[in-house]
Specification:
Radius of gyration: 19 Å
Distance between the termini: 41 Å
CATH architecture: Sandwich
Shape: globular
Strand content: 35-45%
CATH topology: Immunoglobulin-like
CATH class: Mainly Beta
Number of helices: 2
Oligomer: single chain
Order of helices and strands: HEEEHEEEEEEEEEEEEEEEEEEE
């Protein structure tokens, strides 16, 4: 199945508009003295879809040290307990609260054995993303969406920094022929965001008491086509996978003063349906 460049561009525009339309412009930092905590899980329900893998057909000495021949695209990672990793959970309708304290590990991208680590990044609007390559081969970090940098990394252990001055979703890919390399970044306007761990758990802390809408956002995991791109090293045209749109699940949560609220999401391969599990 082929997808046109125009279709991809339109999908990115819709996605960016969706994220920025709900952005918390004018978020106010206040002293939160009676804040509560939101804990929960994101778990998979129903049969697991078959996820695609891509042949490692370039730089196997670096990209495939264990000679596995293929690389999982890491778009859907479900643990033995059903927990879904790499899901972004955040409050949609919060206008004031604590200062930015997003985890540092999600603001630093490493390129290692031809993978982007971590797979999901969270960076404050007007904050800085730091990027490193640990591989002794040419990589690029090509961003589309809310940012449009195209950064080459010809040497190992080179680190660069770039400011993210627009909020929204950023798609990251390598234009040096490593077509399986992919990651997602969310540039956000408030600190009440988290990324689920390998068990699908998350925690949002120091939340002002009140009622909120909370969302679980997951990147698209289906391969819906291929897109042509030039390998900047060989100047040859290569095909890389294109992915389905992200999925979003929302529900309400009431946060008590100095207390804890629990929110558990069940997600599936179907269009988003919120399952009330409290």
């Amino acid at each position: 199945m082929k997808t046109t460049k125009t279709g991809v561009a339109c999908a990115l525009c819709v996605l960016l508009w969706t994220m920025t339309a709900g952005a918390q412009g004018g978020y106010q930092v206040i002293s939160v003295n009676d804040g509560g905590t939101i804990t929960g899980t994101v778990k998979w329900t129903g049969p697991l879809p078959k996820t695609a893998a891509v042949a490692i057909n370039k730089d196997p000495d670096v990209c495939d040290p264990q000679a596995q021949k293929k690389r999982d695209l890491e778009r859907l990672v479900v643990g033995a307990n059903g927990g879904v990793a790499n899901t972004v959970v955040f409050l949609k309708d919060i206008s004031k609260g604590k200062a930015m304290d997003l985890p540092e590990e999600h603001q630093f991208l490493n390129q290692k054995t031809c993978r982007y680590e971590p797979h999901v990044l969270l960076v404050p609007a007007d904050g800085t993303l730091r990027i490193k390559s640990s591989d002794p081969i040419l990589h690029t970090v090509h961003m589309t969406g809310a940012s449009d940098y195209n950064l080459p990394f010809p040497f190992a252990n080179q680190t660069v920094s770039r400011r993210m001055n627009r909020s929204g979703v950023v798609d990251l890919r390598c234009n040096a022929g490593h077509v399986w390399m992919n990651a997602e970044m969310l540039v956000v306007n408030h600190p009440y965001y988290g990324v689920t761990d390998a068990d699908g758990t998350f925690k949002l802390t120091n939340v002002p008491a009140g009622e909120y809408e909370i969302e679980a956002w997951h990147e698209g995991w289906k391969v819906v086509g291929e897109g042509a791109v030039y390998d900047v090293m060989t100047q040859m045209r290569v095909q890389r996978p294109l992915f389905s749109d992200p999925m979003e699940w929302t529900k309400k949560v009431t946060v008590p003063s100095n207390g804890t609220a629990s929110v558990n999401f069940s997600i599936s391969d179907k269009r988003p349906e919120m399952v009330a599990t409290r």
